[in-house]
Design goal:
Blueprint (H helix, E strand, L loop, with lengths): L26 H11 L1 E5 L8 H11 L4 E5 L5 H10 L11 E5 L2 H8 L2 E2 L21 E13 L22 E2 L8 H13 L6 H16 L10 H6 L4 E5 H11 L5 E4 L7 E9 L5 H11 L2 H9 L3 E2 L2 H6 L5 H5 L15 H18 L6
Parallel strand pairs: 1-2, 6-7
Antiparallel strand pairs: 3-9, 4-9, 5-7, 5-8, 5-9, 5-10
Length: 367
């Protein structure tokens, strides 16, 4: 298994583009060329997702000479790639320059020739497991599986997956949906399986299914899709969810009921999104400058403010550049140091085994 860890530290936005492979332009040259292009076209970036509204405004403030054109804010990763395909020869406003896509879409886009390589100046502080070695795509932010707990109902907050087996959690724990049809519950099963000693893939599926079968037999597993409403009502006092969702739900509950978000002590599984530049970007230098901004400390902290853990989080934490008030809203930084990023192959093997074995092993449908 690959563990998220800091590879380097202390790289500034104004550094030269060294990133493991020679770059033809310095950042000053890219900035000048981007200002000459005068525009950047993004796609599928809703302002309430990962703090993107503030991130986009931060880029505009830093580079007022570059107009930001936003396409299809609520689009999917598949929609983004289709926009690149449909606009290969188009230099107009419907052609995206940059992409923010799910991990599995990065290698697929590279294979199809839809994206181009670029290594940002902070390249070395992006974990190897979360980037393409040639720079075609690279992780931008991630979530780790967590527990959100209604502390008005649960006196002792569980610290790890194994704790959920305790009798005091009878009828308390739920997934966010059915693991055979949703990625978030599917990866919850992986986290539990890893905590039980299984490597990501077929092993995590086997161990995870065994764990949930035991949890169901003990009467602790609630086959209801957990969300803010069920947490507030007490139907699902403990729910496994990506931390950025759990933290946002906590804020939505606004103390009614009180809620706490915990990253389990083991089985710390992470899910990552990636950035890429379109192979047909009408504004290639503005695209590079956008990437430099996103992977600078300022850009990374913008995502963190929206509860999405920036890919360079460990580097930021090590250098003590994360504001105290921002950290206070999050689980302890140490909880993220053990985050594991499963490969696409491991995720596929896990999904296949869970989908095939859930009925026979666990025997309940989550609705």
């Amino acid at each position: 298994m690959t563990v998220f860890k800091t590879l380097t530290s202390g790289v500034s936005l104004m550094a030269m583009l060294v990133a493991g492979a020679a770059q033809a332009q310095s950042l000053d040259e890219i900035t000048a060329a981007a200002k000459k292009e005068g525009a950047l076209t993004t796609i599928a970036l809703p302002h309430d997702w990962c703090g993107y509204g503030a991130v986009i405004e931060g880029f505009k403030k830093k580079y007022p000479e570059i107009a930001v054109n936003e396409l299809n804010p609520d689009g999917s990763s598949a929609d983004e790639l289709e926009a690149v395909r449909a606009n290969k020869g188009n230099t107009g406003p419907q052609a995206p320059d940059v992409l923010d896509i799910g991990l599995s879409f990065g290698p697929a886009a590279k294979e199809e020739g839809l994206i181009q390589p670029y290594k940002v100046s902070t390249w070395d502080s992006i974990p190897d497991a979360a980037k393409d070695a040639d720079g075609f795509w690279y992780g931008d932010y991630y979530g780790v599986m967590s527990f959100i707990v209604n502390t008005d109902m649960v006196e002792n907050v569980p610290a790890d997956w194994a704790d959920l087996m305790k009798p005091e959690y009878a009828g308390a724990f739920a997934l966010s949906g059915d693991p055979r049809s949703g990625n978030q519950p599917l990866m919850s099963v992986m986290g539990a399986g890893m905590a039980m000693g299984g490597a990501p893939g077929a092993e995590s599926a086997a161990k995870g299914l065994e764990f949930f079968a035991g949890l169901n037999k003990a009467g602790n597993f609630v086959p209801v899709a957990g969300k803010t409403g069920t947490i507030a009502q007490g139907a699902t006092p403990i729910v496994a969810a990506w931390d950025y969702n759990a933290l946002a739900w906590r804020d939505t509950l606004a103390g009614n009921p009180k809620a706490e978000v915990i990253v389990p002590a083991s089985g710390t599984v992470a899910g990552v999104y990636v950035q890429a530049i379109s192979a047909y970007a009408p504004h290639p230098n503005a695209a590079k400058l956008w990437m430099e901004y996103l992977y600078s400390d300022e850009g990374q902290l913008g995502w963190l403010n929206g509860y999405c853990h920036p890919i360079r989080f460990n580097d930021l934490a090590k250098r003590d550049v994360i504001p105290a008030d921002m950290l206070a809203k999050l689980p302890p930084a140490a909880a993220y140091e053990k985050a594991v990023f499963p490969t696409l192959e491991q995720q596929a093997a896990h999904k296949e085994a869970v989908t095939a074995g859930w009925d026979a092993t666990v025997g309940v449908k989550v609705e």
